[in-house]
Amino acid sequence: MSILWQLFVGLIIGVLARLLLPGKEAIASGILGWLVTALIGMGGSFLGTMVGRAIWKNENYTAGWILSILGAMGLLLLFRFLF
Fold it and tell me: So where are the chain's domains?
């Protein structure tokens, strides 16, 4: 159940990042597009956690919504640059 929850939250974060970042991505439509969006959201959450741990020097830090969305926006910009 934990994997499904992570995919769901990652999807929400990825969708919010795509809404906040203007422009169009080269992400496929359909179920593959939703999966890529969820993976970008999950990666953004991971990136936000790593940045937060580096800034606040706390091993138990977990990213909140804002840092997760900012991390996902960074990954989305990287995705746009590569594709």
Answer: 2-82
